[in-house]
Amino acid sequence: MDEVVGPLLVWLRRTSGPKGRKLLAADVASRAAKALRTDLVSVYDALRQLRSSELVSYKPDTMGIPYAGYLTVVPAEVDVSASETAWREALAAVKDDAQLADALAVSHALFDGLEALDMHHVVQGLIRIRGVAASLEDEFGFSVSAQHILGSSKVLSRLPLATLRLLGVDRLPSTPRYLVVAGPPQPVAVLFIENTTSFEVAVKAGLDAQVALVAAYGYGLNMMSDSSAGLALLESVRSRGCEVLSRTGSGHSLDQLFGHPRMFFWGDLDREGLRIAMALRQHLPQLELSGLYAPMRALGARRESSHPYVGLSGKALQAAWIPAGDSLLDGLAAACNDRAVDQETLDVRQYKPLAHVGLAEASSLALGA
């Protein structure tokens, strides 16, 4: 019957979880027998052997069988990597705050790849930050991180919020986001543009002569991809926590821009671009889809000017569209259900009149079709 001991221990550990959860003792033997396809007598004997070896604990009856309460399983030993060992040794410097040391120990994987001396400097930097936390309330988190931890701005932002709270730096201000505006202070319309490349192309095309063009920066001025610009735009509108930079013109204010009665959005003709438009409308109810989507819809109908939702286009993970109950949004979503068009595809110089009219009006006039 010894051949049951090993499989039973494996089953108990798998069933109880990695931290040794308690299992109800009353039915554990019958459950194990069924799972292992063996008899109860064999399981009873194996349980007695495991208890004798202190691999499980339970309150036994006169036959040494669990009968009431809980059975607790000793979890399997986990191999500790050399990197984790070095990190825990570095944390020995945190002598006066066991709670902080424990919290940092859990995050050991963040520091894989560092040499032991670098780990020591990281810990010393964190200790310094904790010591001066009260004087850092107006400092940016990236700056604090870089000035104290190996010259790296990203370390603090990768730590859990609970750990930052123990360090006293959980409320440091984030780097500001920027809304970049091009156009007159009293525009005929406001056009929110998802991608910063298209914003710049629109400026060069002269769309800012009458229309206030708005785009967002704030996740890094990435020269190779605009992928986060739409989300930055949404967050800037949602929080109103951004600075305004004037690309052309002057005197721009958030209140005037966000309160303008004629407001449009132009982005990628794909599911995520339309989701950004829908989310913006929750905060700016007067927002309409721009007429510039009309020629983009025509581009989407042509195979040579559209692309599928695959890794090459960066769209493989875009979720399917859920009907929004809005005929224009749902109609565009249907048009880009299988193939999408990035807004940079459109030569806006040919469609300048569409910049300050809505999609419904553009479609009715057949502009750009």
Description:
With 369 residues, this protein is of the alpha/beta class. The protein has three domains: 2-73, Orthogonal Bundle (Arc Repressor Mutant, subunit A), CATH 1.10.10; 82-167, no CATH class; 177-365, 3-Layer(aba) Sandwich (Dna Topoisomerase Vi A Subunit, Chain: A, domain 2). Helix content is 41%, strand content 14%. It is built from 16 helices and eleven strands. The protein has helices at residues 5-16, 25-36, 40-52, 82-90, 98-106, 116-132, 141-148, 155-158, 161-167, 196-204, 229-239, 254-258, 271-283, 293-300, 327-335, 359-365; strands at 22-24, 56-60, 66-73, 177-182, 189-193, 211-217, 242-248, 263-266, 287-289, 307-308, 339-340. The model is unreliable at 218-226 (pLDDT under 50). InterPro entries: JetD_C. Residues 184-288 form the Wadjet protein JetD C-terminal domain. It comes from Pelomonas aquatica. This is Wadjet protein JetD C-terminal domain-containing protein.
Radius of gyration, whole Å: 30 Å
Instruction: Outline the low-pLDDT stretches.
Output: 218-226
> What is the string of SSEs from the N terminus onward?
HEHHEEHHHHHHEEHEHEHEHEHEHEH
| Whole-number count of domains | 3
At CATH level 2, the architecture of the largest domain is: 3-Layer(aba) Sandwich
Structural class: alpha/beta
Q: How much β-strand is present in the residues? A: 5-15%
Provide the CATH top-level class of the largest domain.
Answer: Alpha Beta
The biggest sheet amounts to: 6 strands, mixed
InterPro entries: JetD_C
Protein name: Wadjet protein JetD C-terminal domain-containing protein
